[in-house]
Structures are given as structure tokens and as C-alpha cells.
Design brief:
Blueprint: H1 2-7, H2 14-26, H3 30-52, H4 55-72, H5 82-100, H6 108-117, H7 128-138, H8 143-153, H9 159-166, H10 170-187
Length: 197
Amino acid sequence: MIAEEYGQTMEDDLIEDDSKVLRAVAQGDRDAFKVLYHRYYTKLSRFAFRITQRTELVEEIVNDAMVVVWEKAATYKGASKVSTWIFGITYHKAIKTVQKWSRVNQQLDNDYQQLNQLPDAGQGISNVQLTRDLQAMLTQLPAEQRAVVELTFYYGYSYPEISAIVDCPVNTVKTRMFHARRKLRELLPEGIKYPEP
């Protein structure tokens, strides 16, 4: 069974394993698709939430992205990691959703509570209040800048990988990060420094 064959690998083997699983998905293997779906659902949900700031849209975005993965798995050429490809699809779905829904920042307090209940929210930041403050500041960035910050600091992607995910030149990614950093520096309380990637 594909879930047993692919689902029990070590973290170091995930990149290679993702490629194997995606090849099986491309051949119509539903069990392989379930493995990929479960492997990425939480990460993509957090990412989609951080872009849209609307919990009610997250599941739809992730499901729409994974439908594209199912339908287009055979078109994956291996030019980037599978995770980069999947995050790129999710990014485009989330940005379209942000454009469709203009009220991104409504019910902010409720969204913060739900974000903080997600596993690993704010990983690496021990101060809960600082985490909330940073999330509040991120909501003030345009979605494209927010996505670059999230992919860099929460998911550890490099600028070339982010370029592949958001489908724009590396220099555009750097420009978005530059403007995001400048805005975040203005918003940070005095004495707190914005981290470098």
C-alpha cells in the first residue's frame, strides 16, 4: 500500500520521497494523493491563513490547491522541490482569494485566537505577546509582501525558492522583502529589532 511505502520515511528523505509520491499521484494513485494531502495540509493551511487572515477561506484554498496538484501532477518537471511547487499553487490560490475578498482584516481578534491554536504557530518566538504583535503587524502588509515574509521566516524558503513559489523574479521577491521590512521596522515597538533571514 502506498501509504505504508511512502508515509513512514525520515524527515531527511522527504524531498526525494515527495517526488516519488507525486509521480504516483501523476499515475492516478489515490493513496499516494492522500499521503501528499495529509503531509502538506497543516503547512498549507497556516500559509493560506497568514495570507488571507480569514479562517473561513483556508480549507477552500488548500482543497483548491490540492485539486490542482491532483490534476497537474504529471506536468511537474522537477525544476524545483515538490514543496516549492505545491506552495506556489497555494500562493496563487490565496492571492486570488485575497483579491476576491476585499475585507481581509475583519474579525482580527477572533482570527488571532484561531491562529494561536494551530500547532507550531509562532515557532521560534517564545514571547506569546510578541508573536501576537508580529501577526498584527503582518496583517498591515500587502498580501504579496506578507507572503514573502511568511515563506522566509515561518517556512525557511530561500529567495530563489520563493521566486518559484510566487512566480516572479528573485529581484521582485527582494524588493517585496525590502518594503515589508521597512514597514515592519516602523511598526515594531522601540528596542525590538526585526530579524534578518
